[in-house]
Amino acid sequence: xxxxxxxxxxxxxxGSNSRVLLxxxxxxxxxxxxxxxxxxxxxxxxxxxxxxxxxxNGMNRFYERYSDGTFNEESIDLAVEELAEFIEVAIDHxxxxxxxxxxxxxxxxxxxxxxxxxxRPELLAQAVLFGSTKPYREVQAVNLGGKRxxxxxxxxxxxxxxxxxxxxxxxxxxxxxSVSWLRHPGGHSVSPAxxxxxxxxxx
Length: 203
Prior knowledge:
GO molecular function: hydrolase activity
Helix content: 25-40%
Domain Phospholipase/carboxylesterase/thioesterase: 17-200
Mean pLDDT: 96
Strand content: 15-25%
Strand order of the largest sheet: 1-3-2-6-7-8-9
Order of helices and strands: EEHEEEHEHEEHEH
Protein name: Alpha/beta hydrolase
Number of strands: 9
Number of domains: 1
Radius of gyration: 15 Å
InterPro entries: AB_hydrolase_fold (IPR029058), PLipase/COase/thioEstase (IPR003140)
Keywords: Hydrolase
CATH superfamily: Alpha/Beta hydrolase fold, catalytic domain
CATH topology: Rossmann fold
């Protein structure tokens, strides 16, 4: 376990409602990257955006992947542990106790959000996953009753094959989560139509 402090690079923007959006960026981005997306999803939410602390060829990520593109699952576990610790510190530091937290991620950040949801479900009420795939080969059964998850992917996203998404949605639903699988015809990108739809759902 690391230090119980707030030193991890991050951005916090206070909102006017009682929702917290935990913004988790994609590879090569940083803690500023998803602020606009967060505001588009919920203009009144509190935004908490930490930086991924793993460096791959100088690019920020939340966890390591091997040279063939497969995920280092021990690195994912470490990322989840460090993120959970940061969240607990930030909740106290920024006065966010009793505010439901929704993880919002793109790509590497979305996979990390999904891992956080299945490993530390008590921290999250909801997860919005853009350009995301299943983070672990095998996921231990977990109670996700009452959790809401949006999986918003492109049908030709090389990082998120439709066949994997189909099984992943089925698995998450089997754990009790209410899952919306949104699809667009493009690739590894965020669809403006998906942003609008999820924003309406959140409202």
